[in-house]
């Protein structure tokens, strides 16, 4: 028996693809991103990004939008997908990093969309500006890092400033997105002011403009001089942590191997450390020492101050002594590489 399909179910289901096209060059776009754009009936994006993928657009409906029309872009995408079209919404870098992915889901939810909807959503990841810029200057992100956008178009300045202060004091490497535009020139100066409260004036800073694009430009600076650099809308600013250094024109943040191995002595393991095991100052080793220091008379307050950790955290860890068996386990079990 043949089923009679209603015209409604016969309609091809539309799809929204949130495509991160990478920093800008064809070579750094993923195969899936290219495929997604090829599959699309409609391509929507900011004018600059449309230009970056111009050669992939033949025969497609192209919707060029201005910078501040993100919600419009998401609404247009949903309308087209509801009409059965495959829509590629393109973002530079990764669509989920200060990109269209968030606003699109907000618009979709507002319109009553759920993941069961006939309109499917696919997010195609791409190399974000921080990956691209880091690759051009060396290995600045090899330890814990943060991204902070200095754009106050949608975020209050005190929120941005608090985050800058927190990550500066916590010694993260930082990638500053949207550092400066024609109208927003003071934000970078304020960011510098907040960082200088916690970090040395000669902390390395890399300023990368238009990574993997025609006008690519890389400048090395230091924290005290970075605001004088040529910074614009297409720049990402990478600020090193207290261990980051620049050598032979490369910015490098150490992983921490020097904590465990004596690199000057041919890579011997330092006394008290074991290859493949947590550091002696790793969690369990540190807790064990903390207990011993407390037993020897150091107050919780003194320990909190010494380690720059909250008092209530120190108090609760002291109340849970490390079991001998736990320590023994830790000494034999390594991390997976
Ligand atoms: N979704 C993008 C970020 C958009 S926010 C991504 O994942 O990369 C826009 C900011 O990204 C710019 O102000 C700049 O700080 C950074 N940026 C984007 N492309 C860049 C490039 N090619 N070179 C340097 N910075 C870039």
TrEMBL record:
Keyword Transferase among record annotations: yes
Entry-linked InterPro entries: 4pyrrol_Mease, 4pyrrol_Methylase_sf, 4pyrrole_Mease_sub1, 4pyrrole_Mease_sub2, Cbl_synth_CobJ/CibH_dom, Precorrin_MeTrfase
Protein name: Tetrapyrrole methylase domain-containing protein
Keywords, sorted A to Z: Cobalamin biosynthesis, Methyltransferase, S-adenosyl-L-methionine, Transferase
Domain of life: Bacteria
Pfam family, one: TP_methylase
Pathway linked to the protein: Cofactor biosynthesis; adenosylcobalamin biosynthesis
Domain Tetrapyrrole methylase: 15-225
């Amino acid at each position: 028996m043949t089923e009679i399909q209603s015209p409604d179910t016969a309609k091809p289901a539309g799809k929204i693809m949130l495509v991160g096209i990478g920093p800008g060059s064809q070579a750094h776009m993923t195969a899936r991103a290219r495929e997604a754009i090829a599959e699309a009936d409609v391509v929507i994006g900011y004018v600059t990004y449309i230009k970056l993928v111009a050669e992939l657009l033949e025969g497609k409906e192209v919707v060029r939008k201005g910078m501040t029309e993100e919600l419009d872009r998401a609404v247009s995408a949903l309308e087209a997908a509801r009409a059965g079209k495959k829509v590629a919404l393109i973002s530079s870098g990764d669509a989920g990093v200060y990109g269209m992915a968030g606003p699109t889901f907000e618009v979709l939810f507002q319109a009553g969309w759920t993941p069961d909807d006939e309109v499917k959503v696919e997010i195609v990841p791409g190399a974000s500006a921080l990956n691209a810029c880091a690759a051009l200057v060396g290995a600045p992100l090899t330890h814990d890092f943060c991204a902070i956008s200095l754009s106050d178009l949608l975020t209050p300045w005190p929120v941005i400033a608090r985050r800058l202060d927190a990550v500066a004091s916590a010694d993260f490497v930082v990638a500053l997105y949207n550092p400066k535009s024609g109208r927003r020139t003071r934000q970078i100066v304020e960011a510098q002011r907040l960082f200088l409260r916690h970090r040395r004036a000669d902390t390395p800073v890399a300023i990368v403009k238009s990574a993997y694009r025609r006008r690519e430009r890389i400048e090395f600076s230091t924290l005290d001089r970075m605001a004088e650099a040529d910074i614009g809308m297409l720049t990402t600013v990478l600020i090193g942590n207290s261990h980051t250094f620049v050598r032979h024109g490369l910015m490098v943040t150490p992983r921490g191997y020097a904590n465990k191995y004596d690199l000057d002595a041919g890579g011997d393991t330092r006394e008290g450390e074991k290859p493949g095991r947590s550091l002696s100052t790793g969690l369990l080793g540190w807790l064990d020492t903390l207990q011993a220091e407390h037993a020897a008379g150091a107050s919780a307050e003194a320990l909190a101050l010494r380690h720059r950790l909250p008092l209530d955290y120190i108090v609760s860890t002291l109340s849970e002594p490390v079991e001998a068996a736990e320590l023994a386990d830790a000494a034999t079990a390594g991390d997976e590489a």
